[in-house]
Amino acid sequence: MVRRVAAFAPIRLSKVLTLLKLIRSLLKTLHSDGSPGQLAAGVALGAALGLTPIANAHNLGVLLLLAVLNVSFAAGMFAWAVFVPIGFLLDPVFDRLGHFLLVDMTSLRPFWTTWDNVPGLALTNFNNTVVLGSVVAWLLLFVPIYFLARFGVLRYRATIGERVRQSRAYKALQASQLYNVYTWFRP
Amino acid sequence: MSTPGSVRSGAASTYTPAGGSPADKAARKGREGTRIFRWEGIIPMVLFIVLLCAGWMVFGERLIRDTMAEAGTKALGTQLDIADLDIGVFSSAVEIRGIALADPFDRTRNLFEIAMVRMELEPKPLLEKKLVVKRLSIADVRTGTTRRTPASAVTGPGFAPRALKEVQKFAKQFNVPLLSLTPFDTLKSIVLNPTQLKAVQAALSLARDADSAKQKLENGYASLRLQETVDSSSALVNRLQGTNVRTLGIDGARKAVADIRRAAARVDSAKARVEALVATARRSVDSLQAGVQRVDDARRDDYAFARGLLQLPSFEGPDIGSALFGRVTIDRFQQAVYWTTLARQYAPPGLLPKESPGPRRVRRAGTTVRFASAEDYPRFLLRRADVNVTVSEGAMGGAYSFAASDVTTDPAIVGKPTLFAIRRAARGSNVDSLRVTGSLDHASARLREVVSAQAAGVKLPAISIPTLPYRMDPGRGVSEMRFVLDGEQISGRWSVRSRQLAWQTDSARVRKLNTLESLVARVLTGVNELEFTADISGTLAAPRLAVKSNLDRQVAEQIRSVAGAEIARAEARVRAQVDKLVDEKSAPVKARVAELRADADRRITDARARLDQEKRKLDERLKALGGGILGNPRLPGE
Which of these, A141, B155, B455, B480, has the minimum number of CB atoms within 10 Å of its CB? Predict the structure, then answer.
């Protein structure tokens, strides 16, 4: 029993630290000087990284956009973390949507035939039902995610933002940075 | 990296929610409004891509090698091992070393091991995720090597495991007779269980069908409502007996005519019901008659079944040939069917989108759909390969030349059949000559595969004799095989000729032989030439096998001369026993069917006669009633 606890303790600690980092990242993003629009655009772009299978060419484009567009990169990274489990949950839906677009909609067949046979475009893996379904779903959800995130940021800042900033918990989280510094030198 | 929304680690945020000064807000808005891009963001992206490239250079080849081995294993249905992979990015060439493909039918052996394969690829199709091989070179091939560890079985829903299952099912469809050499002194009567006989089962089933048909006929006859129709018509005829227009008056006569017409319509309706019943009865009786025929057919199977229980030795040549060489022949053709089935699945005809399982990943794999177009490259194409291969060891060792053309996954795009040939000519070695040619024509909707192989001066495989503790070793001889799969039609021939047939005792199966076994063993071991031909025909779903050899002719003659009379007597006894059991059950059923047929004919004839008579009476009444004054109205059906 003691051995089991000892074996699981580091794993549990690392999970707690990851969660703390996530919360801190969220708060840092919310309390940054970015405008609600910039934060929301970052979230909407970052959602692609979580909703769609990561190792695909379109995600390189999303990362590039997050880097070169004047949007919140941190919000994008936060959205990635948040949308990964949602992506897993929605995979069956993406699969069906992709199958509908690739197979069932015969009118699109000439388009996909061209797409699949154009050098470069074929590397996008859009001929896979889950990849295509998730990318299309993300594009459809882009605007709703943007407005929801923008509304959320505005509401947060207008209501509890300042109180959270002054709270002990927030300060404690900020202080946990010190623990990070300690871990760098931990043997 | 400085990005909006993020602050330097440990630094205080400059965010001021509601209390920021208006001047600050305006300044910030102005700054943000004018700037959409931050070009400095490209620098970390470039660094990220450089890191990706570095990671690819370190781990990429290993990743591709593992993926290739896994995909190849899934595709071929047998374990594929790859020791090393080298990708020349700038030369667009791939070099694969240490390839070993396990035999799907014997997991302790490799079909072949290849030390090195080098493929030079056309670069442009790579951007479309397609492989077009310009040049192929292969070095150091070994065949039939023993594996250090047995290959793991490939399971799952892929093409190859499915093909393997289909082929195993195909092999089980052959009814290979056993070489039964029961001693004469143990030929005894058997006690047959009637329920095991197919004819008895068929007779019982026929009895149930006859009962059901009889009931159906009774119901049909009752639903004719014949008596009711006849009674009603007779009553009307009686009522109008001796009347005419004068006694009835104009209105009464008109009413009487209408009554007669209604009664006639009822009679006609009843006649139509009778005719429908005739059709039903005829179908039922014909079906029962077919059942009687089935009982007789099943009786022939029962003779064979009962004969099998006696384990009588067969002295029919084809039976002995199939018993001696059936299994080994099926094994040969089974392998040909497996590879052609796989080829059909991986190179299907047509240009319709082809679905296959997506790549394995943590997320759902989904389905990958390939869209082919006649104007584009196929997914895989080996235009031409002319390779000189040296098989370094084993019975097949030596130099071979291998040629293949238009090997592709999209035959409809290429529009030509895949052709291949292997040749060898080296007298004095283990194989004097070998020639294998074949074609896979999937360019049109009708798929056709042809494989021919001829080997001369080749060491032929030893074959165990079933039942007897002997192995025949044909030594070196000539072996020819031709296999054609045309649509679902299968045809093939395997022939072996050897003048060096030797017999070896199989020490693991040595035992005391009975009289008949000793005789057959003496006949067999006295033969020093082998000549057999196995023909396969039919369809994949119903294949047939016929084997002829010089051995089965000699064995059959010997068995016939020594034990023919005894065996014939035992067969006659068995047939009589089967006849007795089957007749007990089938004779009453046959009588019942005959009776049912006669009864149906009698009832129908009777019904027709009664209705015709009623119709005639109504007609006469109508004529009498009209008397030429009203003119004769037409009766329904006239």
Answer: B155
